[in-house]
Amino acid sequence: MTPMMKLINALNALIVALQEIAGEETKIEMGQFVEIYTPPELEKSPAQPTEEKTSAEPQKAEVTHDDVRATLAEKSRLGFKNEVKALMKKYGADKVSALPQDKCAEILKEAEKIGS
Question: Is 20 buried (19+), middle (13-18) or exposed (0-12) by CB count in 10 A?
Answer without folding.
Answer: exposed
